[in-house]
Specification:
Elements (H helix, E strand, L loop, with lengths): L5 E5 L6 E4 L5 E5 L6 E4 L11 E5 L6 E2 L9 E5 L6 E2 L12 E7 L17 E7 L17 E5 L7 E4 L3 H6 L4 E4 L5 E5 L8 H4 L7 E5 L17 E5 L1
Parallel strand pairs: 1-3, 2-4, 3-5, 4-6, 5-7, 6-8, 7-9, 9-10, 10-11, 11-14, 12-13, 14-15, 15-16
Length: 236
């Protein structure tokens, strides 16, 4: 008997709920405005083979139930404006998760982010959630994290620092966001109150690519970096 391995819904306006079978390895749901509920078949006896889950532009989905994530390597949730809850308490158990996108979800549970991340996470896209970035506190990003994309709309962040010294963490103001020193690639979007970034670069020894979009006050990068070691792109 054939088992369903890959499921994709796109633009299904009549789809209101979906129960994902335990055989599915890849699940993608896009532009399904009527979807309000997503559940998963029981996995008590047989662990789920699910490795990829994408939920994109599902306006009315309100709750992301705990999903079978023991083998999950990619989790992407974005542009779900009414999504209120996210099972973030399970993140520390996602030892296989490598990339995670969760942004443009302005109704998200205010307790997320809570500073706990998957131990082997390498790529993270995050921002424009219910909880302003200036109130996130120390995030304890894993040393495996090398690519970070931050969306700063309504974040309250006015500066960046690097979390390379415990002594610096306690002295950091709440309006300053702490970056992990392990980064190789960094993108900043819509941080309209940040005025400087050149000093931060000195504490990101592994950084090779920096992209800045719609951060109009950052103007101190033109002569502060070695172009042989770092590529900088600035978009207004």
């Amino acid at each position: 008997m054939l088992s369903l391995k890959e499921v994709t819904f796109s633009g299904c306006d009549a789809l209101e709920s979906y129960n994902c079978p335990n055989s599915v390895e890849s699940l993608e749901i896009r532009d399904c405005d009527s979807l309000t509920s997503l559940t998963f078949s029981s996995v008590q006896e047989h662990p789920s083979p699910l490795t990829e889950s994408i939920i994109n532009d599902c306006t009315n989905i309100k709750s992301d139930k705990p999903i079978p994530m023991s083998r999950l390597t990619s989790l992407r949730i974005r542009f779900c404006k009414n999504l209120k809850s996210f099972a973030h308490e399970y993140l520390q158990h996602l030892t296989s998760l490598e990339d995670m996108w969760i942004y443009e979800c302005p109704s998200m549970d205010y307790s997320f982010p809570c500073g706990v991340w998957p131990a082997n996470l390498t790529e993270l896209w995050i921002g424009h959630l219910n909880k302003p970035m200036s109130e996130w506190g120390q995030q304890n990003f894993p040393t495996s994290l090398v690519e970070l994309i931050l969306y700063g709309e309504n974040s309250g962040v006015v500066s960046f620092e690097v979390a390379n010294d415990v002594r610096n963490i306690t002295a950091t103001p709440s309006s300053s966001f702490l970056l992990p020193p392990s980064l190789v690639s960094l993108e900043l979007h819509d941080f309209v109150d940040v005025e400087s970034f050149s000093e931060v670069l000195q504490h990101l020894p592994c950084l090779k690519n920096l992209e800045i979009r719609s951060c109009p006050k950052i103007t101190d990068l033109s002569t502060t970096y070695d172009p042989s070691n770092l590529t900088i792109d600035i978009w207004e």
